[in-house]
Amino acid sequence: MPQPSRSRIPERMCIVCRNLRPRTELLRLVRPTGRNDLAPDPTGRKPGKGFYLCRNQDCLARLQKEKKLRRLFAGRITPEAFSWIELELEAAGDGDALT
């Protein structure tokens, strides 16, 4: 009788703290093809270049503050994306639960 295979949990790296975490523990932002802004991607399926962010306030604060990270995107993060991130952090509780 064959053994059940273990399903591999995909991991992604947070663009701020550079920690690897399971994809389900991160928030995804996407830069749609041909545009220079980042938009929220709650489904994780939008086409374009995807970026992942930890679900904690420290990473969000560093993302908003550091010029190095803004240059990484070659564009800007939409206010809609920041609002979505903040709502996700509030829904998770204090936002530091996964650090």
Describe, in plain words, how this protein is organized in 3D:
- With 99 residues, this protein is of the alpha+beta class.
- The protein has 3 helices and 6 strands, in the order E-E-E-E-E-H-H-E-H.
- It has helices at 57-65, 67-73, 79-91; strands at residues 11-13, 20-22, 26-31, 37-40, 49-54, 76-77.
- The strands form 2 sheets. Strands 5-3-4-6 form a 4-stranded mixed beta sheet. Strands 1-2 form a two-stranded antiparallel sheet.
- Mean pLDDT is 82; it is low at 95-99.
Record keyword descriptors for this entry:
two-stranded antiparallel ribbon, alpha+beta, 6 strands, disordered C terminus
Shape: globular
Task: Give the overall average pLDDT.
Answer: 82
Helicity, in percent? 25-40%
Largest sheet: 4 strands, mixed
Secondary structure tally: strands: 6
Distance between the termini: 41 Å
SSE order in H/E notation? EEEEEHHEH
- Spatial sequence of strands, sheet with the most strands: 5-3-4-6
DSSP strand content? 15-25%
The helix count comes to 3
Query: Structural class of the helices, strands and pairings?
Result: alpha+beta
> Which stretches are low in confidence, meaning pLDDT under 50 for 5 or more residues running?
95-99
**Rg over alpha carbons:** 15 Å
